[in-house]
Amino acid sequence: MCGIAGVMTRNGEGPDPLLLQRMLRAISHRGPDGSATLIRGNTGLVHLRLAIVDLRTGDQPLYGATGAALVANGEIYNDPELRRQMPQTQFNTRSDCEPAVFLAESDGLAFVDRLRGMYAIAIHDLKHESLILSRDIFGIKPLYYIQEDNLFLFASEPCALLATGLVARSVDPSLRAELLQLKFTSGRKTIFPGIYRVLPGETLVVKNGRIVDRRRKAALPEGGPKWISHREALRQIEQVLLDSVAAHLRSDVPYGLFLSGGVDSSALLALMRRATGQRIQALTVGWDDARATDESYEAIRLAGVMGADCHRLVMSESDFWNFAPRIAAAIDDPTADAAVLPSWMLGRAAAGSLKVTLCGEGADELFGGYSRYRKRRVPWRWFTRPPRNKGLFEGSESLRGWHDGMQAAENSVASQRSEVQRAQEVDISEWLPNDLLIKLDRTLMVHGVEGRTPFLDPIVADFAFSLPDTEKTGLRFGKRLLRDWLAGAFPEAGAYARKKGFKPPVGLWMARRDAILAELVANQAGIQEILPRERVQQVFRQSATKPQPAWSILFYALWHNHHILGHPSEGDIGDVLRSK
After folding, report:
1. Which residues, other chains included, contact 562 with Cβ-Cβ below 8 Å and sequence gap of 6+?
2. Contact yes or no for 373/423 (Cβ under 8 A)
């Protein structure tokens, strides 16, 4: 797990080393274990290393037989299998990313078809004088780029591209509206005009500073649901999940688990124990507010049953007030999901003891966990509204026109999908990479911790997405097959207990200082552009019962203050929002 960046010039001259250094410094948190810069011809590559596999010889760039140079951010889980399939190749390291550079030389752009993992890869192809960028099919690892008149630049985070000074620190109004209405932004464009995402599963070819080819590998299998008996599905899910967890546990450093007490992390706990036979290290987070729902004690109970060591971290109202500015600063590609708060706290707690942690992202999307999937089944879909057809700030003139991105995603779904699959596919293409996985990447990597997601595996996806709708959603619960498997494999987990949720009580915390927060937020330049003072005050007065709108504008105010105005993020919310 690492950070990468690079430059290709259009005029053939070598890239400015100072430009590369600015990008390197901006994402230095992603690579506490070392850094390297390579300049060849009109191309420069930067790599920052978080050492996970091959601690001794795994420094990058990695080189192929014909001189191709690779820098990567990620893990290739089928590295052992790839090496066995390439007996004539003379490898120089044990790095899990090394086979990719040889495959790119032999297979061209089809090299990605053989990779199983999470990755953002950049390869300088010396033979063809081109730059290849590729991102894993789920978008677990981030990759961004800008294309100027004379330069092409890429990086793991937008903050590295902003640090070059080549793009303005400004906001696209349509993407701002989407963020505040929806909690995240969709599609290729980012909220920063001129900065774009490499899409999940996409591979770009750049020559002379210009994109000359794009290809995209699908994350999901074609077609609609396929019939399978419940008994056979239960047999296969265990095989599929055990295989994925075992692959995701390949590491030369200590690993653990973020345990929430819900179905997904409980399933991972049981699978990790089966795969390793060892005592698992786990972290959970709870709240110091008695009125808040808190599953951390359930997580500790389950850990005890499974023979795991689980440390309970407590997030307090004081933590919220003190750390929210730093958390907003870490989320440069913004998502107003309040789950960034406990995720950042868990990353901070893991730093120093765990470099790798397994996480449950993707289970809901692939196995059908959300109520919006259940509502897509006949007859419910005739009586319910489509998902995300109403924003958080309906009626705000300055926040109109936010539907286009999600509408485009919905229109792109193949007609042979079931209605449940259609909702799943939209979530997997937009909500998952642009909200949940951004949250996971930034909140952990800022602390030098790698998050791995065994549910987001191509073998798991091929199995889960093709299941009949009835194996995903029942009358009252989603993830029917996963719950049924968990009920047999780990009955103490209460597979059909109602989940309380993994959200901090931000509404209660904000409500106690609603007048102060309303005044601070209403005075921010970024907020004054979009909401009148009276609306801001109303939102914070309602924060106890309607927390998301209040958190969205507080997060945006903190984010805008740092990423657009350039103010420091040190200090509590009051200190930061009073700074000029």
Report:
1. 325, 328, 329, 568, 569, 576
2. yes
**Band of residue 268 on the pLDDT scale cut at 50, 70, 90:** very high
Residue with token string 């089944």: 377
Looking at residue 368, its pLDDT comes to 97
Least Cα distance to 439 among 347, 567, 322 occurs for 347
State the number of CA atoms in the 13 A half-sphere of 121 facing the CB: 34
Helix (H, G, I), strand (E, B) or coil at 112: helix
pLDDT at residue 500 greater than cutoff 70: no
> Cβ of 188: how many Cβ atoms within 10 Å?
11
Backbone φ, ψ for residue 543 (5° rounding):
-65, -30
Q: Smallest Cα–Cα separation from 536: which of 393, 329, 363?
A: 393
**Which superfamily is assigned to 230-493 in CATH?**
HUPs (3.40.50.620)
Q: Is 31 helix (H, G, I), strand (E, B) or coil?
A: coil
Distance CA 243, CA 381 (A): 35
Q: For 469-505, what is the HEC assignment? A: HHHCECCCCECHHHHHHHHHHCHHHCCCCCCCCCCCC
Strand order in the sheet with 117-125: 62-63, 69-76, 117-125, 130-135, 202-207, 210-216
- Measure CA 271 to chain center: 22
Task: Classify the C-alpha dihedral 278-279-281-284 as positive or negative.
Answer: positive
CA distance 78 to 187: 29
Summarised one tens digit per residue, pLDDT across range 412-468 is 998 899 999 999 999 999 999 999 999 999 999 999 999 999 999 999 999 999 999
pTM of model > 0.85: yes
Cα angle 302, 307, 310; round to 5: 60
Amino acid occupying residue 561 = N
Distance CA 102, CA 90 (A): 10
Q: Over range 212-240, report the average pLDDT.
A: 97
Give the residue among 265, 448, 452, 278 at the shortest CA–CA distance from 350.
Answer: 448
Find out whether 185 and 559 touch, Cβ atoms under 8 Å.
Answer: no
Query: Tokens 């902003």 appear where?
Result: 162
Whether domain 2-216 has CATH 3.10.150.10: no
* Token pair listed for 436: 């949940």
Nearest to 217, CA basis, from 190, 199, 240, 205: 199
Query: How many Cα atoms occupy the beta-carbon half-sphere of 303 within 13 Å?
Result: 24
Torsion angle defined by CA atoms of residues 421, 454, 264 and 228, in that order, rounded to the nearest 10 degrees = 50
pLDDT at 1 > cutoff 60: no
Q: What is the pLDDT of residues 297-331, one digit of tens each?
A: 999 999 999 999 999 999 999 999 999 999 999 99
Q: Output the CA–CA distances (angstroms, integers) from residue 206 to 10, 154, 175, 176, 194, in the order listed.
A: 10, 11, 26, 29, 17
